[in-house]
TrEMBL record:
The active site is at E265. This is Aldehyde dehydrogenase PuuC. GO terms for molecular function: oxidoreductase activity, acting on the aldehyde or oxo group of donors, NAD or NADP as acceptor. Belongs to the aldehyde dehydrogenase family. It comes from Candidatus Rhodoluna planktonica. Keywords: Oxidoreductase. Residues 27-493 form the Aldehyde dehydrogenase domain. The lineage of its organism: Bacteria, Bacillati, Actinomycetota, Actinomycetes, Micrococcales.
Amino acid sequence: MLTTEQWIERAKNLRPKADLFIDGKFVSAVSGKRFDTLAPRDGSVITTVARGDGADVDAAARSAAKAFESGVWSKTDPRHRQAILTKFSDLILANREELALLESIETGHPIGDAMNVDVPSAARSFRWYAEALDKIYDEVAPAPRTALTLITREPLGVIGAVVPWNYPLIISAWKLAPALAAGNSVVLKPAENTNLASLRLAELAFEAGLPAGVLNVVTGLGAEAGQALGRHPLVDKITFTGSPAVGRMFQTYAGETNGKQVALELGGKSPHIVFEDVADIDACAEAVAWGIFYNAGQTCHGGSRLLVHESVHDRLIEATIKVAKQLKMGDTLDPSTQISAIVSERQLERVLGYLDIAKNEKVDFALGGNRVTPAEGLEKGYFVEPTILTNVDNAGRIGQEEIFGPVLAVTKFKNTAEAIELANASEYGLAASVWTQDLTRAHKVVREVRAGTVWVNTFDVADIIVPFGGFKNSGFGRDRSLHALDSYTALKTTWINLGSDEPK
Ligand code: NAP
Ligand code: MG
């Protein structure tokens, strides 16, 4: 691993490509407009990015549709797609330092996480779907002997992928890998704050042999480029991760245009439910602290609520504070940093706004609660201390709303029924965890909790092998696993008349 000084030196010398990637080339926006992208660690301008709008989305969607119809990718032998996606995965790993730096400098993810989590996870997604794609068989239905009925999967066409800023590489890979593996063409619209790693990713895909037009990236603003993609008639499906409000806009865009499919993965307010018989308070505290403070709390399934039995409340809070105090907050580019900046000034203000709300709700600040400067020279960076709020009313704004920062809301319960009620008393249902030694209770609680993922005696362990998505206002789309691959295909029925059952 490079040293902090070496990373800072590399960051200074970065000359990232920040135009639109359309039809296999970097191009300026038709309007010629650009916008600044900033480094959360110190608020400095990294570079300017092309501000694509409807005209650019149209060019990208046409390029994607043309590539799809030509069959250069969509009609190729699965083994050809496998070879190219495998090479792409290898190229991601071969360019790990560059991708990690682009991701880290723009998102504020600690460089160590970008190197060890973001880049390898993205590479693994492409490799996993590449490996899978020649191992999936279609179906023959049990028709009478006078017919042969085939159920086959075909790619959908053009996929519009709209992603947030919290994990640009990982979330893009969760969408692009299955969409491309299935033979679709894609137009990716990254979040306006985080474009650079995605643009490099598209360039590497092209270098790996992905034909021009099969993967396009249109950077720009949500209301311009995002909306244009959502409304484009050549787009067959939108796969979206972000806020519930914008997710619903995509449903409206689809309804008002071509009725394209829309898959939504939205936010969460995921609870840990800790019972009095939790086996190991320290292990639980470790999971609770990392579950909310990792990536400064900017994780859609982050464990932002802690529901804890009153008899273990004090011990668990004490242990969680101990872990939180040991987490090293620091410069994004310091490899020893464990927690770093919030993505943007806007999100910083939003988190600080919630801390003011917390003061009005009269919750107790057991830890943190302030903006900080973790190192010299980072005074303008967007840093918030790990914060633990106790005696939170689950029905109040702190208990209900997605803060998307390093803020844990703690509420006590007295019995299992109350724990389940509190867990489900949320508009969200993305994830939850249950901590108990009682296997029967664990299974019963898992069944009752309305969430797309429920962990038992752990938190935030995940992999491409299992689906990820929500219930309720957390959306209904599922990224990861073979189910995601399936969601980028359409079923075709072929009914072949074999005439009479007499052998010829
Ligand atoms: P967002 O506004 O929902 O943005 C998600 C994506 O949609 C971005 O690419 C965004 O582009 C685009 N978009 C925004 N407005 C649009 C519009 N009117 N039409 C079409 N596309 C549009 O989410 P955000 O601003 O990144 O974060 C807001 C909140 O969403 C967070 O505080 C958090 O609560 C939640 N969130 C959830 C997740 C998750 O993984 N579930 C991730 C991030 C955020 P621009 O970036 O250009 O606006
Ligand atoms: Mg936004």
